[in-house]
Amino acid sequence: MIYLDHNxxxxxxxxxxxxxxxxxxxxxxxxSSTHAPGQAARRLLADAxxxxxxxxxxxxxxxxxxxxxxxxxxxxxTGALALGRQAGExxxxxxxxxxxxxxxxxxxxxxxxxxxxxxxxxxxxxxxLPVDACGRLDLARxxxxxxxxxxxxxxxxxxxxxxxxxxxxELAALAHAAGALLHMDATxxxxxxxxxxADSGADLASVSAHKLHGPKGxxxxxxxxxxxxxxxxxxxxxxxxxxxxxxxxxxxxxxAACDRTARSLADDxxxxxxxxxxxxxxxxxxxxxxxxxxxxxxxxxxTSCLRFGALDSEQVLGKLERAGVVASSGAACTASxxxxxxxLLAMGESAQHAKxxxxxxxxxxxxxxxxxxxxxxxxxxxxxxxxxAATTAFPARFMAA
Length: 401
Ligand code: PMP
Fold this sequence. Notes:
alpha/beta, four-stranded antiparallel β-sheet, 44% helix, binds 4'-deoxy-4'-aminopyridoxal-5'-phosphate
C-alpha cells in the first residue's frame, strides 16, 4: 500500500517507538512525586521539554504539553477570551469597548470552527476572515475586522487540506496594533517547513506530535513568555497551566520525533517538493481535467489538493485504494452523507467541486517509485471514468474556441 495521507497522520518513527517503550519501562513513576523514581521521571520530562522546545524554536518554559492540537486550540481560544475579559475589567475606562471578539479564518480546522460556533451560541461575537480562490487570506478584510474590541485572532499557519500558507507575521502585526493576541494553529508546519515559534510573531501556537512521526494524543500549546494564559484544565502540572499527570511516553515520543525530524529536515523539504511536482505533472499528463487547488507559490511542500474533473472524491478514493494508493478528501462524512469541503467552499468552489477534492500528502519516506505507482494507479483506475467526456468526438464546428 502506498500511503499518501501524511497530513492526516504519520507513522511513528522507530526511534519514537524506542523512546516511548523506554519511558513506559523506566520513567513510569509520577513526575510530581518527590521520591527517587518520581525524580527520574521528572528528569526525563525536563529533557524532553528542552528537545521539543529546541526543535520548535521556543523556550522550554513556553511549552505546555497537551493531549494534542485540538486541546491546545481550545486552551488558546478560551484563555485569550478570559484574558480579554480581565483586561476590560481591570482598566474600567469609560467608553472603552469590551475586548471580547474572536476573529478566525473561514478555513480553520473543523474542531476549532466547532468551538467558535459554540462560543457564538453563548454570545461571543465571532468573525470569519475570508480567503480568495487560491486559498489566500484576505488581509484587507483582516485589517477592517481587527479592531480594539478583539481579544484573539486565530489563524492556522498552513491549511491542512490545501497546504496554503497564511500570512501570520502580517496578522500578528495587525492583532498587536489593535491590542489583541495572535494564535496560530501550527499543526501542519513542523517537519514540512522551517517554522520556529520565536520568528513567527505569534503569541500562541498549537502543535501535535502525530503529524511529525510522533505518537497520537500528545502535543503542545506554546505560550509566549510573560503571557499569563489561564489553564483549560485546572491543576498544578505544567506550572499550573495544564492539570493532569503528564503523558510520559507520549512526551518522550514527541521529543524523539522532533530530534529525528530535525536531523533530515533540509533534505526532506527538497525531497517532498520534487516529488510533489512530479506527482502533479504526472497526473496532469496522464489524465484530462486535473485541477490543482491553492496558491502554487505559497504551499507546504508535501500537499497536493486537486480534483479529477468533477468526479466525486468518494468514488476516486475508493478506486485508488483498490489500486493500492490511499489518500483523503477534504469532504467530511456525516450521518447525512458526504458534506463538501468547507475549505473549498470558502475558496468559492461549487458544492459539486468541493465534494470532488482529493488530497495527496507526501511524507519524508515517500519514494519516487511510490509517486510513479500512484500516477499509474490513477491513470488505470480513474482514467476510464474521465475518458467518455474527454474523448467524445465533437465535430470541430461545435467546439468552443
Ligand atoms: N489543526 C490542524 C490544522 C490539523 O490538521 C489537525 C489534525 N487533523 C488538528 C488541528 C487536530 O490535531 P490533534 O489530532 O492533535 O487534536
